[in-house]
Amino acid sequence: MSRVYNFSAGPAVLPEPVLKQAAEEMLDYQGTGMSVMEMSHRSKPFQSIIDTAEADLRDLLAIPENYKVLFVQGGATTQFAAIPMNLMKAEGGVADYIVSGSWSKKAFKEAKMYGTANCLASSEDETFSYVPDVDAIKVSPDADYLYICQNETIYGTTYHKLPETGDVPLVSDVSSMFLSEPMDVSKYGVIYGGVQKNVGPAGLAIVIVREDLVREDVLPFTPTLLRWKTMADAGSLYNTPACYTIYICGLVFKWLKEQGGLEGIGKRNHEKAALLYDFLDQSKLFKGTARKEDRSIMNVPFITGDADLDAKFIAEAGENNIANIKGHRSVGGMRASIYNAMPVEGVQYLVDFMAKFEKENA
Amino acid sequence: MSRVYNFSAGPAVLPEPVLKQAAEEMLDYQGTGMSVMEMSHRSKPFQSIIDTAEADLRDLLAIPENYKVLFVQGGATTQFAAIPMNLMKAEGGVADYIVSGSWSKKAFKEAKMYGTANCLASSEDETFSYVPDVDAIKVSPDADYLYICQNETIYGTTYHKLPETGDVPLVSDVSSMFLSEPMDVSKYGVIYGGVQKNVGPAGLAIVIVREDLVREDVLPFTPTLLRWKTMADAGSLYNTPACYTIYICGLVFKWLKEQGGLEGIGKRNHEKAALLYDFLDQSKLFKGTARKEDRSIMNVPFITGDADLDAKFIAEAGENNIANIKGHRSVGGMRASIYNAMPVEGVQYLVDFMAKFEKENA
User: Fold this and answer.
1) Where are the beta strands (DSSP E) in B187-266?
2) What is the pLDDT of residue B221?
3) ipTM exceeds 0.90, yes or no
4) How many Cβ pairs within 8 Å bridge chains A and B?
5) What is this structure's pTM?
């Protein structure tokens, strides 16, 4: 077995100890005589798995008591609809969106199906290479919520400051920065994300929602399973959840605790990002594409400025144990996603390879 | 490692060779240097996994060319809403339902949110222990579809004859009988089910839908991801799907082919069911609860008639390597789910144990 350095933007690299444990427990989970895949979601062993996962997540993020944690299916994309369905007033819902990349743009478009959605600011004018100035934002007085995608995976930008929303709940898609460093949950109405970038395998989203936003009076045609109240009341077990995916996320939470929690992993993530950005900033060949002040510590897009050279780099990287370094199909170039499970050595290996490539192609 | 005989109604027993292969490939899938969990859903290896899974499923069920296969999240429960959203006329949708158990009842209730839903027949008068007479059904002339749940997991009944619907599409939830024996797909408009009973781990539903029912003009507030057209146009890759779950289902499809396809597994399933029903029919202690003509070959509920004795049986079974034999919390008693991956020896072991228990408690 030889493992590659996998810079995929998601689904993405997972901690090796987690995969090893999953493999070992595949046919017999802790003496139950069955795989977690085969386990009734109403059984004691599975109840313990989901309870422990939630408790560990609450520990890691220091989630206040008055927030519910929901394990749901359908990815962030389903929440693009569920958010307005759960939060918009039935008579004339209004929501504000900041559009800083493809994902917030998609969420904004979906919200229009359900009420008035305002785009307060957009960075599309410069290919989403920056985050709009949050100090210039004026939240609509009748807004049901303000929506942001806090880390845009494709363009490698992140909000280093949050917009002031007063009493209007802030809703944040954190898919590609989930659990990458500490965050103050109490500043948000809703934090949510797909887990397949930094937390676990694809097929699960986690919604962390303040209790007063878990409402009975959602838009009338909201499917039962898209109502946050359904999932909150049932402890995410209204129907059969993505049991095995929840189990793997639980193992990742345990691993994160062993890394010193979000403080520990956050420190390492900043070191990893600095390693790569420092190289990019002195390189004569490679160039980061996101505005410096808005750089993500998770997704690092870069280019040579020459599409043929980009292609050559991607091909040679692939031959040298560097997988999925190609940029998103919508923007081209390269992108290194350096999530929690990417070791420092992986980033160092990439930087060394880039330095060698630069020398050879000077 | 010691495995139990797991009679869970779902999530449920999976073929041991599938679990072994999954464990072996966990850290390095076929030389890619990564787990399937870590694989970009836009990568060639994953595209090959999902393409192969679909092709094998099409082979197994002999799915005609004019049917789409969709791999979706959210379980059958999300489809309870998606079905009326995709099939009901925007101006005054009408749907007919036969209510033969808890699952069709839930689906019926959900449909009422979206238009007129008619209950054509129900077997609730006798605790859903039988399937209503399909010959007595008269489909509404303006119905957008007729809905059935073809095998009710909790009550252990199955339709051995389908209702005649003429031009009205027949929609069938086959969750707990999926791939248990051959079926004629061309008789249906939509066949769908959660995979967590007979096909794979929880977190995926499969929708097999006739092309003309994959429509653009769905109900206007239908979330993008719940529109079948979204998933059909994107080959189930509009957003990140439940990749690992699809991979496991793919392994199960290969295993099914090795068992002689649905003919082979169907023959074995009928043998397994006969073993258990024959014992029940001669037993003086145990009694099957479903009407004989409507018995399921997958889910076999039974009772002693004495709740204390039921509890004693369940406890002793648990001590003797028989897991999850307890009936659904809504009906009590016992239930043996004897899905594809339950070996004949497992059913024989159960029957022997029941005979011993009967003798000891005569």
Assistant:
1) 190-194, 205-210
2) 96
3) yes
4) 232
5) 0.98
